[in-house]
Amino acid sequence: MGANKISEDVRASDAPACSLIPDNLDPCLIVIFGATGDLTARKLIPALFDLFVDGNLPRPCSIIGCGRTSLTSDEFRQRLKSKCSSELTAQSRWDEFASLLHYRTIQYDAAATYEALAIFLRELDQQVGTSGNIIFDLAVPPELYPVIAGRLSEAGLAAENEQGKGWARIIIEKPFGHDLASAKVLDETLHQGFKEHQIFRIDHYLAKETVQNTMMFRFANSIFEPRWNRNYIDYVGIVAAEDLGVGTRAGYYEQAGAVRDMFQNHLLQLLAMIAMEPPASFSARQIRDEKIKLLKCLRPFSAPGQEDALVLGQYGPGKINGQDVAGYRQEAGVAPDSLTPTFAMMRVSLDNWRWQGVPFYLVSGKRLARKDTRMVIQFKEVPHSMFRGVLGDQIGANRLTFGVFPEEGIRLSFQAKVPGPRICLRTTDLGFKFYEDFSGPVLAAYEKVLLDCMQGEQMFFWRQDGVELAWEFLDPILEVCEQCSDRGRQLKFYEAGSWGPKEVRGLLSSLMD
Ligand code: BG6
Question: 91, 120, 266, 463: which is deepest, by most CB within 10 A?
């Protein structure tokens, strides 16, 4: 290759390769069910406001909050203003944004409510000029998903492209069912009126920039992909550790536990991002197809040799940041003899050519030593050490770490010489910080989710076949957690503020190095 070609490449790589947010987003109405709830005030409205301020909300656009509480639209606006942070509402553009907000009091299970809502939305659409396009965001407890989706379909609100209608989309958040059977029932209800391309199943981990970046790192660079397999990789660790406890969510968490709360969704998605085959193109269909293929390779937990592949734990009292904290069983709303796991470690095997024999350690727990989310690719040791005579056998192997929180970036550790007359090696790092040298706008997870939905882009959302494969894999594990005769013995207790049950401390201290 000539020098000219090289300098052209260098110049070309100076400019970021970007696909931009289209400046012609379709106008639309955004209907939020659960509008007086926490998710709306903490995440959805701030995300919509930020999109508005950055000019990334479609024009025209109106946001309609729906909830059981009786409120006027003015009261709704005031309420959000007081619930959103002062930094947000102090900005001069709040009043302009607030004029887009409306409120409707509704009864979630009353057909008449939806008939009246349909009339209201039709009138508003004509008045504002949103071309019949509509998003329904279900920020409600999951037991209401089938109720609301069913009623929307009956009222004709799920229909698209007929009688003056544009597109219609529905957003729901995990949990997508409680197990495989209930996930299928939920899906059937959603599909009564909505087609698969209209359904957006959020996994907020997929909206994280650093999670998306694993795919760019793998498939936009050529140096690692040839080594991304059983010949070079010793094991993979995927960790989502939290220092927070169950907080005020005991009602939900007692039913869910760590496996449903974190593994059925976030951790399996991270696994798929790290382990899938290269998709043929950057399209939602191709990428989600590859993830599905990967989920089909999960070795069932009932297979021989998997007996010690699962460790479940529950936090007892301990200290976080020097402060005494209660054990799980002492938390408000938790049964004093609860057997709900707040921690799980799964050693997952993938039965395909690329990954045969490579263990994937998936770990997540509450009240661990600190909040830290990362993916660790541990490479194999050098096959032969020429330093053996001088340094012995121990040479640290390379490791690639994708930091999601608090470190957002990538670290490659390798061996280097210690300066000086003696022959010594030390482990050192090459690092990349995701936001360093970057001053452009950054989308928060919910901004990304909402924007993708407005664009009809499903790449970073779950597809139903993936949801079902995840449950198929986890249902037998949940059976062990919930129905086996020695549940009490299965559960290992750990001190809050530690790195989990003693059975996994070695693994965790190595992964969190
Ligand atoms: C949620 C779980 O999906 O993810 C919570 O329900 C958990 O229990 C949270 O705390 C963790 O998300 P993040 O983005 O803080 O890592």
Answer: 266
